[in-house]
């Protein structure tokens, strides 16, 4: 007699904690895994893989173990995703919806040890509400953390979050900074080189990297592709601008918006100055002020060009990686070289550009334009016939559709909020959701306004033909005997960007056609 049996369902277990410290302790991950394995054993599931991760539940795409789990499910290697609780899988409602949708498409179930969620409209609503509650709780945690930081700062002490400022380490109990001698010596060297010796920042960067001086990011940043951390100009400029090095402790100067890679300055009214002595000075006030003056004057195009007259400084970019190229002399000849070689990633492979040849070519193109404005007139006419950029119009229409959808959702929630009388009604959740939708609505309104402005700008640019002739007639006088200042002014007026790689060049320019508008052209 034959007996047919169904093979056991396969399960992929996912365990997550929020911090590396919890991961090192192991208790939270271990207890989650044990509960999931016991759950799987009770139901006869065969566990094929266990994914353990220490990462914020608010993120999705940077969670490598969750990405592996999703790939496992997409390949059909697991019938069930098993986690201890819903918020272990994700604290973000939108991210949770994406994972559940992927699992459903692959024919896999999602189960939680501490929660039972049925595949019904009610169950899906419960998932959405619980995911939203988890997201709200994450926001509350962030708010509590921010309140703690502000309370500590208000007491006159540094808060203990974020990375250490180069040259210092925090005394976490006293809330002050202490000088790290080796790093402080490098800080003094940077200020001395820039303020006293007038050394170009790029030269200083190359010397620091060549000598193997550890940069501020060493030990704090790890590149997945194996790159090593290096000094780069932006790091030097941040050090030179930091008031802490003159002994002034100002906090709340910067803030990071969402997942932005860089911090943005806050309004000066939000800055908080801590008491004297919180941060010991590494350089004198005079040295710090001299460095600010040197940076301010040394980075001005006119000042640099007075010392080294490079016609295309500031407007020439690498055609390989898009970074700005800088000018220097090699064996007495002017060249333009990609600035990527000063970045942690290293040189992009773009070829150096012979300075005299590319400058001669650009000036020839500029003079041809100035002497024959019909070239620009023809380009304007072409733009007139082509009409507004269809990409801008498409993006604008998509934003408008999304805005209509969000306004509909917001109005529905507001009506529900206004009609509710039940004491058990989730007032706080609805109010937060309305606030979130209103924020998205404002962002979309601003986006649409920006796209409308760009479309109007393109339309206005095509009707400025008469102004072109007047402009060209004004600047086209004595072009053959033009000195560097005249040439530079013409390049700044007409050229938006030069892209170059070796002896391959392209110029993108703009002709002033009124107070605020211009028309564009491209030449190779």
How many strands in all? 17
Counted by DSSP, the helix tally is 17
Oligomer: single chain
Number of domains: 4
Structural class: alpha/beta
Characterize the largest beta sheet: strand count, sense, and whether it forms a barrel.
Answer: 4 strands, parallel
Please compute the radius of gyration using only Cα atoms. Answer: 30 Å
| Silhouette | globular
Report what the structure shows:
The protein is an alpha/beta fold. The chain has 4 domains: 10-139, Resolvase, N-terminal catalytic domain (Rossmann fold, 3-Layer(aba) Sandwich); 168-299, Alpha-Beta Complex (Hect, E3 ligase catalytic domain fold); 304-379 and 466-523, no CATH class; 390-448. Helix content is 49%, strand content 15%. The chain has helices at 20-25, 27-42, 64-74, 86-89, 93-105, 121-154, 181-196, 201-210, 233-241, 285-298, 301-307, 355-371, 374-386, 390-419, 427-461, 465-475, 484-494; strands spanning 10-17, 46-54, 80-83, 109-112, 168-171, 176-179, 250-251, 254-255, 264-265, 272-273, 316-318, 325-330, 333-338, 353-354, 495-501, 504-512, 518-523. The strands form 6 sheets. A 4-stranded parallel β-sheet has the order 2-1-3-4, with helices on both faces. A hairpin with a 2-residue loop joins strand 15 (495-501) and strand 16 (504-512). Helix 14 runs antiparallel to helix 15. The protein is globular, with a radius of gyration of 30 Å. The protein starts with 9 loop residues before the first strand and ends with a strand.
């Amino acid at each position: 007699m034959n007996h047919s049996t169904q093979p056991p369902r396969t399960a992929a277990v996912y365990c997550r904690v929020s911090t590396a410290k919890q991961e090192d302790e192991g208790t939270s991950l271990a207890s989650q895994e044990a509960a999931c394995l016991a759950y799987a054993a009770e139901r006869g599931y065969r566990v094929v893989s266990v994914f353990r991760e220490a990462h914020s539940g608010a993120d999705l795409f940077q969670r490598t173990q969750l990405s592996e789990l999703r790939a496992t499910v997409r390949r059909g290697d697991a019938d069930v995703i098993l986690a201890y609780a819903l918020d272990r899988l994700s604290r973000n409602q939108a991210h949770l919806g994406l994972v559940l949708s992927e699992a459903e498409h692959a024919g896999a179930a999602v189960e939680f040890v501490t929660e039972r969620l049925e595949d019904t409209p009610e169950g899906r609503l419960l998932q959405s509400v619980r995911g939203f509650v988890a997201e709200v709780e994450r926001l509350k945690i962030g708010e509590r953390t921010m309140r703690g930081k502000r309370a500590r700062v208000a007491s006159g002490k540094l808060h203990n979050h974020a990375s250490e400022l180069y040259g210092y380490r925090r005394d976490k109990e006293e809330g002050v900074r202490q000088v790290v001698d080796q790093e402080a010596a490098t800080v003094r060297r940077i200020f001395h080189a820039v303020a006293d010796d007038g050394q170009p920042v790029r030269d200083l960067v190359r010397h620091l990297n060549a000598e193997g001086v550890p940069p501020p990011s060493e030990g704090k940043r790890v590149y997945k592709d194996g790159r090593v951390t290096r000094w780069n100009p932006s790091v030097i400029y941040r050090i030179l601008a930091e008031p802490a090095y003159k002994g002034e402790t100002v906090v709340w100067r910067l803030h990071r918006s969402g997942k932005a890679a860089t911090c943005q300055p806050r309004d000066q009214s939000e800055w908080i100055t801590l008491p004297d002595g919180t941060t010991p000075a590494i350089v004198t006030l005079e040295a710090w002020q001299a460095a600010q003056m040197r940076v301010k004057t040394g980075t001005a195009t006119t000042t640099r060009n007075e010392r080294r007259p490079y016609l295309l400084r500031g407007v020439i970019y690498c055609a390989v990686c898009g970074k700005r190229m800088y000018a220097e002399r090699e064996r007495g000849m002017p060249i333009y070289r990609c600035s990527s070689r000063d970045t942690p990633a290293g040189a992009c492979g773009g070829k150096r550009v012979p300075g005299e040849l590319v400058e001669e070519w650009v000036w020839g193109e500029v003079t041809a334009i100035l002497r024959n404005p019909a070239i620009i007139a023809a380009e304007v006419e072409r733009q007139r016939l082509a009409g507004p950029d269809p990409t801008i119009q498409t993006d604008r229409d998509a934003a408008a559709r999304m805005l209509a959808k969000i306004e509909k959702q917001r109005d529905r929630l507001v009506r529900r909020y206004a009609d509710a009388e039940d004491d058990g009604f989730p007032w706080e959740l609805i109010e937060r959701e309305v606030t979130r939708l209103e924020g998205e609505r404002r962002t979309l309104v601003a986006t649409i306004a920006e796209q409308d402005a760009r479309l109007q700008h393109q339309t206005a640019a095509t009707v400025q033909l008469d102004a072109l002739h007047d402009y060209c007639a004004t600047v086209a006088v004595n072009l053959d005997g033009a000195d560097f200042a005249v040439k530079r002014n013409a390049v700044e007026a007409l050229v938006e960007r030069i892209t170059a790689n070796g002896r391959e060049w392209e110029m993108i320019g703009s002709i002033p056609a009124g107070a605020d508008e211009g028309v564009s052209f491209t030449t190779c």
